[in-house]
Design goal:
The complex is a heterodimer of chains A (68) and B (515). Chain A has 3 helices and no strands. Chain A has 68 residues and is mainly α. Chain B has 515 residues and is mainly alpha-helical. Chain B has a two-stranded antiparallel ribbon with strand order 1-2. In chain B, a hairpin with a 2-residue loop joins strand 1 (462-467) and strand 2. In chain B, helix 1 (6-25) packs antiparallel against helix 9 (186-214), helix 4 (63-76) packs across helix 19 and helix 5 packs parallel to helix 12. Classes of the chains: A mainly alpha (68), B mainly alpha (515). The A-B interface holds A 1, 5, 8-9, 15, 18, 21-22, 25-29, 32-34, 37, 39-42, 44-45, 48-49, 51-53, 55-57, 59-60, 62-63, 68 and B 78, 81, 84-85, 87-89, 91-92, 95-96, 216-222, 229-231, 233, 241-242, 245-246, 249-250, 272-273, 276-277, 279-281, 283-284, 286-287, 290-291, 294, 509-510, 512-515.
Chain lengths: 68, 515
């Protein structure tokens, strides 16, 4: 196995961005509240919707930062 | 038939007719030899980033989801939003684990999870367990898609007694079966593009128009009872609703890509990069699903539940009628036709992929393994086509003869069963440290205990696990897959010691990533 091949299957620190996505999404005490609301939408709902978009950006970051 | 909404029905039928034609025409799209299983059952593994986006999106975010999630928000409130963290968690898994599976399946010509497990662990019985789990969990899921079609047909005012009442569903079904048989995975892939465009149009219109009609989001959420607005804060000695919410999201996410139809859609991608890109692009669907979940609250604020015009619909379909009623109440008839077509067509796509996935499993991991070990390519593809018909027919009979309630409960059990394949499939993508027999025992115990826990709680999806004076209500699937994993790990050294034969691993370490 060549050096580059070893690198390709290997762990990357960028993957920690995935752990961030998991921890926030799966920790309800963080967002189970009404205020601050946005256009009348309680925090619980708009925060989780916004988190989807943040996660998409984080995943895209990992995509650009790591090799296939 | 006096209450038929003719304008909506006409639009609905026109769109339905168009996608039916598309389904048959798809046989010639990116033309391949449909007498080969990977051409019929995986579209020749030819789909790039964009088609994969539509296909996986159309596959995972099913019509039933678009009806059931808002229905749950309407009935139970905040807990329904677990669909959002659920669909956040799946994409890192897609990016890391299922990309590896894509590579190894591509390199070794695997078409199903059963193929992979057979090759990785060299144990046909473990592969059989994975295969049976996939087929059994998929059947009620197909049946549920038909519920989606039933609800919109009912909401269009089409009704009748006895067999006549089921006629529209039967016709939809025959069309679905015919184009799946003739075009394979190319049919749902092409239809998914139409379906997803319609769904996005509907979701965007609903989220803009309805709040404007109801006087803004502030008014809508003010109408939602306080106990539905947020999760109940857990009392002492329990993780309460927080634990349920998080484990439902986690467990559903872990199970999702193990379902045969998910893997089929992933494996049809043309490259590992297409998978990785989609991990960043597919959250677009999650966002839309989150918006649609809010429709449940629009239903409360609009008060459609109390309008006499919809009483019959709610009586027949329960809370699943909430979204159709809201759309009927809020939009002109022609747009209702588009929205209902989106839901109806949205049922065809996953139903087709699910039946193809189950057919692939049967053909590769049961027929080829246990009945005819050396089929020709043509025989193999033909077997799969017949199997897809059989699977769909089974789902149809199920939905016609058995109350919908049971389809929903079985689908719930399906998630608990499906997740038990995680150690062999997802961890198998990284290591073959586990002994195949240990994995098999873990699978069996996880499945049995999961089923027992579900029955003990009267088919609730969460189980109140008690440890001392503490209670941890959580998704049964998560608890039982943990048990499964512990057993597999503990039994592995013991099974190795007992010299229970460990089959050969035909995959190589560098099969799992690009070169």
């Amino acid at each position: 196995m060549s050096q580059t091949e070893q690198k390709r299957g290997a762990w990357s620190w960028w993957y920690l961005l995935f752990a961030v996505q998991f921890l926030v999404a799966l920790w309800p005490p963080l967002y189970n509240r009404v205020e601050p609301n946005l256009f009348g939408i309680p925090f619980f709902y708009w925060f989780q919707l916004a988190w989807i978009l943040v996660c998409a950006v984080l995943t895209a970051t990992v995509y650009w930062a790591t090799d296939d | 038939m006096a209450d038929v909404n003719w304008v909506a029905l006409s639009v609905f039928l026109a769109l339905f007719g168009f996608v039916s034609w598309l389904g048959f025409a798809a046989a010639r799209w990116r033309r391949g030899d449909l007498d080969q299983l990977h051409e019929w059952g995986l579209g020749g593994r030819r789909f790039g980033t964009v088609v994969t986006w539509f296909l996986v999106g159309g596959d995972l975010y099913t019509a039933y989801t678009f009806i059931a999630v808002p229905a749950l928000a309407f009935g139970a409130g905040a807990i329904a939003f677990f669909a959002v963290p659920y669909t956040v968690v799946i994409y890192p898994l897609l990016f890391l684990v299922f990309r590896r599976l894509w590579y190894v399946c591509h390199r070794r010509g695997y078409i199903t999870a059963g193929d992979f497990v057979r090759g990785r662990f060299g144990n046909r019985w473990l592969a059989l367990a994975i295969t049976l789990t996939g087929i059994v969990a998929t059947m009620p899921y197909i049946a549920l898609q038909l519920v989606g079609i039933q609800v919109v047909i009912g909401a269009l005012g089409v009704s009748g007694s006895g067999l006549l009442g089921e006629l529209p569903l039967l016709i939809a079904f025959l069309v679905l079966a015919a184009f799946t048989y003739s075009s394979g995975l190319r049919a749902p892939a092409s239809i998914a593009i139409v379906k997803d465009v319609l769904i996005y149009i509907t979701a965007i219109a609903a989220i803009i128009v309805i709040p404007a009609e109801l006087g803004g989001f502030g008014k809508i959420f003010a109408a939602v009872p306080a106990q539905k607005l947020l999760l109940a804060v857990p009392g002492e000695h329990t993780t309460g609703a927080y634990g349920s919410y998080a484990t439902l999201a986690l467990g559903s996410a872990l199970a999702l890509f193990l379902y045969p139809h998910s893997l089929t859609a992933i494996l049809s991608a043309s490259s590992g990069s297409a998978i990785r890109r989609n991990a960043a692009l597919l959250p677009g669907y999650s966002f839309m699903l989150g918006l649609l979940a809010l429709l449940g609250f629009f239903v409360i604020a609009a008060g459609v539940h109390d309008l006499p015009a919809y009483a019959a619909g709610f009586k027949t379909f329960g809370n699943n009628f909430a979204v159709p009623a809201l759309l009927l109440q809020s939009f002109p008839s022609w747009f209702v036709g588009i929205a209902f077509a989106a839901i109806g067509i949205g049922a065809l796509v996953p139903a087709a992929i699910m039946s193809i996935a189950a057919a692939n499993l049967y053909t590769r991991n049961i027929h080829r393994e246990f009945i005819n070990r050396n089929p020709t390519d043509k025989e193999e593809a033909q077997n799969a086509k017949w199997a897809s018909l059989l699977v769909k027919f089974g789902a149809l009979v199920f939905i016609l003869l058995v109350p919908t309630k049971y389809a929903i409960q079985l689908q719930l059990l399906g998630g608990i069963w499906m997740i038990q394949t995680l150690p062999a499939v997802m961890l198998g993508a990284y290591t073959r440290w586990f002994n195949a027999w240990a994995l098999l025992i873990g699978w069996a115990v996880g499945t049995l205990v999961g089923t027992w826990m579900a029955i003990a709680t009267n088919l609730q999806n969460t189980y109140p696990l008690s440890v001392g004076s503490y209670t941890f209500p959580g998704y049964t699937a998560v608890y039982t897959v943990a048990l499964n994993l512990v057993l597999a790990a503990v039994l592995t050294p013991i099974c190795n010691r007992l010299a229970a034969s460990t089959g050969a691993d035909e995959t190589l370490a560098n099969d799992y990533f690009s070169h």
